[in-house]
Amino acid sequence: MASQVRAGQIKGERRSTKRGTSIEFADYRDYVRGDDLRRVDWNAYARLERPFIKLLEEEEDLAVHVLLDASRSMDYGVGAQHKFHYAQQLAAALGYIALAAGDRLTVTVLRGEALTAQYGPARGRSHVLRLLSFLEGVQADGVTELDSVLRIYALGARRPGLAFLLSDFFAPSGWRNGLSSLLGRGYEVTALHLLSPDELDPPLAGDLRLIDAETGAAQDVTLDGGLRELYRQRVFAWRDEIEAYCLKRGAHYIPVTTNVAWDELVLFQLRQRGLIK
What three-state secondary structure class fits 245? Predict the structure, then answer.
């Protein structure tokens, strides 16, 4: 669901910025010579003795963009809590909703500093199986520079619309400029920030060597109760920082922990926020 009324390209189920021929009333305007007399509201003319043209809502399609972070840091977790598998299921669910509604869907894989793979644009339920096949073939690997790839996407796409960003936001060069580029080009952005429960509260203790999953950099730490608590505080402060940035710029921010069932997230939480219906 878009919070703004947008112009589409073909007939669909969404309100448009244009006036058209649906059954939904939009407004009146004065009759001018040459107007189709069939569009005159004769009831209003009988009351006011002035001819008015009834304007109706146009209904068109909506552009939906699903942006899937496929960096190696997303390849983390076990079973149903695996971040990238969770993200694939979310992308499939959002894509299915868009296709079923007759909207124009594009799914793009973000990896490195480029757009590595893309599905669509596609429209209609007949494309669902191809969408699932595409998502199943995507693997998480490498480093995703969110600033670069989001800026490239914002500059290259022809039809801004709803953009769902599925990412853990682990980006060496940051993410602010990339999000700003999408928003500046007219996208309505929803950031789904995916983290596993272990990343919020790691079940670790003692002397450890931590290896960065993407860069391979090592860090020796001694993890005790005090350091774990400091870590938790900083993780939640980091999420709060992203949320504040998004809210300030009119984007939606949804922190997601992968121990929450993906279908519960879609059917309840996204509905409560008015992002789908």
Answer: helix
Note whether 83 and 31 are same-domain residues.
Answer: no
Q: Round to whole Å and give the CA distance between 25 and 7.
A: 17
Do residues 70 and 144 lie in contact, with contact meaning Cβ atoms separated by under 8 Å? yes
CA nearest to 94, candidates 1, 3, 169: 1
What is the CATH classification number for the domain harbouring 166? 3.40.50.410
When comparing pLDDT for 92 and 228, which is higher? Answer: 92
Indicate left, alpha or beta for 97 from its phi (over 0: left) and psi (-120 to 50: alpha).
alpha
**Other Cβ atoms closer than 10 A to 136:** 9
Quote the domain boundaries for residue 158: 63-272
Q: Is residue 210 part of a domain?
A: yes
For residue 148, pLDDT beyond 60: yes
Q: Are residues 181 and 87 in the same domain?
A: yes
For 168-214, the pLDDT digits (tens) are 999 888 899 999 999 998 899 999 999 999 899 888 888 888 888 88
Helix, strand, coil share (%) of the chain residues, nearest 5: 40, 30, 30
User: Does residue 277 belong to any structural domain of this protein?
Assistant: no
